[in-house]
Design goal:
By secondary structure, the chain is mainly beta. The protein has no helices and eleven strands. The chain is 0% helix and 54% strand.
Length: 112
Amino acid sequence: DVQPVESGGGLVQAGGSLRLSCAVTGYRSDDRVVGWFRRAPGKERVGVACIRGRNSESYYEDSVKGRFTVWRENAKSTAYLQMNNLKPEDTAVYYCAHRGAWGQGTQVTVSS
């Protein structure tokens, strides 16, 4: 079974940073993508960033480009999302997904 588990969320002031982790049981280090998503209050869940396994190509949603960085450590079966210069509009529950499985989410709250 595949099961991602997110951690690292919390409360931070605008301009601050957080690092989210996604530890995955059933992790595959081949070309399977790890994706990060978020659901802001009252909104649908949307993609934030993703990274491929084989060549570590990464992709970002426009609003986070230059502020968020995604990477993966295959030996640890873990993916990360470094979030810098956080803004109040980044407040959301953040999820990771791998091989069709979703984690339970971790809350990120950015105060102004």
